[in-house]
């Protein structure tokens, strides 16, 4: 059975080997990516398209609730106005 100090030394050795393997594989991956980029003439915009994760500009939202006495409307987002706060909202639906 290994002692605590032996196990710590083994862990340090393994951590060092892991870091070296990561660095080596990362360098290999970068080299492969460079070959493909040069082969197909790719640019940064080809690789990193911003269309996928872009959120919309936060346009207007249609109102969901209306106060029948004043005509005031609320979208249902944010803090509820006093005229609907704590009440059954189904009767105010538009």
**Molecular shape:** elongated
Give the N-terminus to C-terminus distance in angstroms. 74 Å
Order of helices and strands: HHEE
What is the overall pLDDT average? 89
Strand content: under 5%
Q: What is the number of independent domains?
A: 2
Overall description:
By secondary structure, this protein is mainly α. It folds into two domains: 4-48; 58-93, no CATH class. The protein has two helices and two strands. The protein has a two-stranded antiparallel sheet with strand order 1-2. It is elongated. 0% of the residues are buried. Its main location: cytoplasm. InterPro entries: H-NS_C_dom.
In short:
The chain is mainly alpha-helical and 94 residues long. It has two domains: 4-48; 58-93, no CATH class. 44% of the residues lie in helices and 4% in strands.
Keywords:
single chain, 94 residues, mainly alpha, two-stranded antiparallel ribbon, 44% helix, elongated, Histone, DNA binding, DNA-binding, H-NS_C_dom, cytoplasm
Helices and strands in order, then pairings?
Layout: H1 4-40, H2 44-47, E1 65-66, E2 73-74
GO molecular function: DNA binding
Subcellular location: Cytoplasm, Nucleoid
Organism: Polynucleobacter campilacus
